[in-house]
Design brief:
Blueprint (H helix, E strand, L loop, with lengths): L1 H27 L3 E6 L8 E2 L5 E2 L1 H13 L2 E6 L2 H9 L5 E2 L7 H4 L2 E3 L4 E10 L14 E5 L3 H8 L1 H4 L2 E5 L2 H9 L5 E5 H9 L4 E3 L6 E6 L2 E3 L4 H16 L2 H10 L4 H4 L2 H4 L2 H41 L4 H16 L2 H16 L5 H27 L2 H9 L4 H31 L11 H12 L2 H31 L1
Parallel strand pairs: 1-4, 1-5, 8-9, 8-10
Antiparallel strand pairs: 2-3, 5-13, 6-13, 7-10, 7-11, 7-12
Helix pairs in contact: 2-9, 13-14, 13-16, 13-18, 13-19, 13-20, 14-16, 15-16, 16-18, 17-18, 18-20, 19-20
């Protein structure tokens, strides 16, 4: 009986091993790619009422992936960040209504061109601007990195206008509507979609697109040949069987209400909240998570730098001063782009967006923390150190037992204030694709074009959280003084 049990056990273990190996082999045959996109670019890339990424680009990619047997992780971010993520090796491919140009061909390998587009230009409804010649001395709003921006810059001297740059379409359109800029250039189907869905612009060349060109799916030059091959094969299939034409017709002929639900309900604050409650909650959770983790680690890092700053060792003091100077001096967005896009090309490995954002906050907020920590320690009366040393305590023990406890008590309000600053700074990390509260707002606005109401909701959420933190600050301060 024992022999039978042993035999069955061996067979079971063998079967589990084979099953596991088979599963691993099967899993290995299904490649997963990281694909970036600009998810604020309807009708090509945006979120629907279920907070799922959709649009012409996304449905083409989804259909091809299913047919060709690969999976992908989508990373929405600004257009510039999306393209740079691919060129730096952080992502495998980009599909974001990206025009194929000679300059981009030097950096990307493109798949089969999948959509022929052209450039349009628009002005505010009721504007006195009737032709390009009327733009002399005026301001034109353009979206960074787009073919519309390239064209506007190519004719800027000829027509004598000034340009201002934006990273998202909704802010750009509102700049024109509010009269800060007098016109905008962009991809014609994108502008037409916005106008059809309530944006108060007038397209000046609806029937005659300028410089018609092709959109392409891009990968880093010389990399991901298999992904490109799969895209081309899948695209040829959906083109030949009519699937492609159905996808394009579905989005170009639809109104925003098709993807946002009942239009009237979504035009009210309550309607927007009901339709997007889960998205707002997820964005808020990501913001709070980033803030809490960052402030804890930044506090540890800042206290360490602060202690180094009051050390007897000249080298440690110099190192502390240098690090504080560097990371306080760098703008947060520049530091985020450097860590997320610049650093991977140097170290040869990918850095997840959340990790890059967290490191950015730790280094930046930690430097500010270190500055007030050092000041807090220096604020403790010098006689305290002298008294501790006269009692026979070493310098390190005097710091640990006497100076640090008193200094930390002085710093508590500053710590809470830094917590609030960190919370607000997380909004900047939307530029590298972290789906926090601000990025969530951008995605919702791109879908329903209700910028004022959506940003009012986001502002109120931030205000509520910051108010709670302020109350916490006051409570902690009172407790420490008691």
């Amino acid at each position: 009986m024992k022999k039978i049990r042993k035999f069955l056990l061996v067979v079971a273990l063998f079967a589990l091993t084979i099953f596991g190996l088979t599963t691993d082999v099967h899993a290995a045959k299904v490649p997963n790619y990281v694909i970036t996109t600009d998810a604020t670019y309807p009708p090509f890339d945006f979120q629907d009422k279920n907070n799922q990424y959709t649009g012409i680009d996304q449905e083409i990619l989804k259909t091809i992936a299913k047919r060709e047997g690969f999976t992908y992780t989508l990373k929405p971010m600004s257009f510039n960040a999306a393209t740079q993520s691919v060129s730096s090796g952080q992502a495998d491919g980009v599909i974001a209504g990206m025009s194929i140009t000679d300059e981009r061909k030097a950096v990307f390998d493109f798949g089969t061109p999948y959509y022929r587009s052209g450039i349009g230009w628009a002005v505010k409804k009721g504007s006195r601007i009737k032709s390009l010649s009327d733009l002399k001395g005026q301001t034109v709003a353009i979206k960074t990195g787009t073919s519309g921006a390239d064209y506007a810059l190519s004719i800027q001297k000829q027509y004598g206008f000034k340009v201002t740059y934006f990273n998202d379409s909704d802010t750009l359109y509102n700049d024109v509507i509010n009269g800060n800029a007098q016109a905008t250039f962009g991809d014609l189907p994108v502008i037409q979609y916005a106008v059809k869905n309530g944006t108060q612009l007038k397209v000046m060349n609806a029937k005659s697109p300028i410089q018609a060109g092709w959109y392409g799916f891009g990968v880093q030059k010389g990399k991901n040949a298999q992904l490109l091959k799969s895209f081309n094969k899948g695209f040829a299939a959906i083109k030949s069987d009519g699937t492609y034409d159905k996808i394009v017709a579905k989005y170009l002929g639809a109104s925003a209400a098709t993807f946002t639900g009942d239009k009237k309900a979504n035009n009210s604050v309550i309607g927007i909240l009901k339709a997007n409650d889960s998205a707002f909650l997820k964005g808020l959770w990501q913001t709070v998570l980033l803030t809490v983790v960052a402030i804890i680690l930044a506090s540890v890092w800042g206290i360490l730098l602060g202690i180094m700053g009051v050390s007897q060792n000249t080298g440690l003091r110099g190192l502390s001063t240098t690090l504080i100077y560097i990371f306080r001096g760098l703008p947060l967005m520049v530091l985020a782009f450097f860590i997320y896009i610049g650093l991977p090309s140097v170290i040869g490995m990918k850095i997840p967006a959340f990790t890059a954002g967290l490191i950015t906050l730790i280094l930046n907020e930690g430097a500010y923390t270190a500055a007030f920590v050092r000041g807090g320690f220096e604020a403790v009366d010098r006689g305290q150190m002298e008294a501790a040393r006269s009692l026979g305590l070493s310098y390190s023990k005097s710091m640990r037992k006497v100076i640090v406890p008193q200094g930390l008590k002085i710093m508590i309000p500053s710590f809470i204030n830094q917590f609030i600053i960190t919370l607000k700074d997380t909004s900047i990390l939307s530029a590298i694709g972290i789906l926090e509260l601000t990025q969530t707002g951008s995605l919702i606005v791109s879908r329903n074009s209700q910028g004022f109401r959506v940003w009012a909701i986001v502002a109120v959420i931030y205000l509520i959280v910051i108010t709670l933190l302020t109350w916490l600050s006051n409570w902690v301060e009172k407790r420490t003084r008691a």
